Amino acid sequence: MPFAHVVLDIPTRALSDTFDYAIPESLEKTAVVGTTVLVPFSHRQVVGYVVGISDSVSSGLDVSRVLPITQVLADSAFDEQSAQVAEWMSKEYACSYADALHPFLAPGQKVKVTRKDVESPWQLVCEKSGPVDERWVELTEKAADFTPAVNASKQRSVLEALAQGAMRLSELSATIPGARSAVTALQKKGIVEVRTQRQIRGSQEGLGTTLSSGVAPRPQQLTEGQESALAAIEAAQNLAQGDVVLIDGVTGSGKTEVYLSAIEKTLADGKGAVVLVPEISLTAQTVGRFRSRFGEQVAVLHSKLSLGERFDQWDLIRQGRARVVVGARSALFAPIQNPGLYIIDEEHEASYKQDSLPRYHAREVAAQMARLRGAALVLGSATPSLESLYRTAQGSWRGTQWTRVAMTERPGVAVLPQVQVVDMASQFKNGGRSVFSAALAEALQETTERGEKSVLLLNRRGFA
């Protein structure tokens, strides 16, 4: 008889150990790793998660006293590697094993169970989800000659997002506030077209999009830095031991094209890819560009989608119909099959740190996932974090190779701006008392005299 190693989810008790339960013959096909089950514990029925299956129980246990699993409550949501990642998170970030497993579960799933009467089977209590908005927005031929009014900032944002490819109206609304009214105004002018695509929840049909792939613009020639980055990523994937490639590229150096090219090779090898962006507001254009290259293979996960939409996207990934996941921090835990590449864009951003239970840093969790799955991790930034720079300087970290690739040039005719760093200490020594240096004050004056505008950027408070 097979036995399951189960993590119990009891909110009032932070249990970090697994408990062994026998798998009845009637549940052998359904009680697999990743399933949510109902088991007896301390004279009551509690919810747990299967993290492992073996033919024997833990040492010291009497087989005759091992209780059987009562019922399977939900299908598998994660695999053995994900369970190992959750176990590592529970130790690394001082939380219970069950709390570390929560990000891997299906959207809306809760710990509580209920049933109609004594003879009825138990059911999980899940959050109710509304209907999925399946209206898609895309540009028409008139969009090429259309210029929004000066004060129509929402329309410009919508057009910029749609320039990369068609998007769902719900995604536009989640990433661009006021997008619905802007789409309505553009539709009346014939600039955009809104079409409805029916989706049957929970079925195999209608879960994807009908977008075609291969329409994203490709550069005629990659820069030397892009070629070096792709070579480093390919080497890391060939070694398949969780190596990390840090792309230290200036703004506009073409890091996104490196991501797209690396993902193309990953898909060609029969593997999947996960792409994280720091903010939901950055998802609109990113999703458009990735969907225009990879079509219906792209799934989107972030908190601004409705619960029903998140579940559909999550289920699309679990079925293997979506092989590229794009989203914010939580997209890292998507049930993608056979991942070969993890990408974290703007890896220096503080938004990759989760500040509620379970607390974690997406960069560290992604590195652990890459190690366990034999994938490569790519970190991209114009201002890499000190931790990443230190690890690449050391050459290795926790048994994996860390490589830094510099991308200092911009593709095409783009030219980097001239930058002047002013030592404010010398300004104060010479009698200056203003927060503006003499060089800055002079440049602002000259810009004003030319009738041009200036933009001043300040560090976030506490980060100066």
Cα radius of gyration in angstroms: 26 Å
Number-wise, the strands total: 20
Principal-axis shape: globular
Strand content: 15-25%
Number of helices: 13
List low-confidence stretches.
Answer: 200-214
Helix percent reads 25-40%
Gap between N and C termini, in Å?
Answer: 62 Å
Secondary-structure class: alpha/beta
Estimate the mean pLDDT confidence: 88
Largest sheet, order of strands side by side? 13-14-12-15-18-11-20-19
The main pleated sheet reads as: 8 strands, mixed
What features would you describe in this structure?
With 464 residues, the chain is α/β, with parallel strands linked by helices. 30% of the residues lie in helices and 21% in strands. It is built from 13 helices and 20 strands. The chain has helices at 80-92, 97-101, 153-162, 169-175, 179-188, 224-239, 255-268, 283-294, 307-318, 362-373, 386-394, 424-429, 438-449; strands at residues 3-8, 19-22, 36-41, 44-54, 71-74, 109-114, 123-126, 135-139, 167-168, 192-196, 244-249, 272-276, 298-301, 324-327, 339-345, 353-354, 360-361, 376-381, 396-397, 400-407. The strands form 5 sheets. An 8-stranded mixed sheet has the order 13-14-12-15-18-11-20-19, sandwiched between helices. The chain has a 5-stranded antiparallel sheet with strand order 2-1-4-3-5. Strands 9-8-10 form a 3-stranded antiparallel sheet. Strand 6 (109-114) and strand 7 (123-126) form a beta hairpin. The relative contact order is 0.11. Residues 200-214 have low confidence and may be disordered.
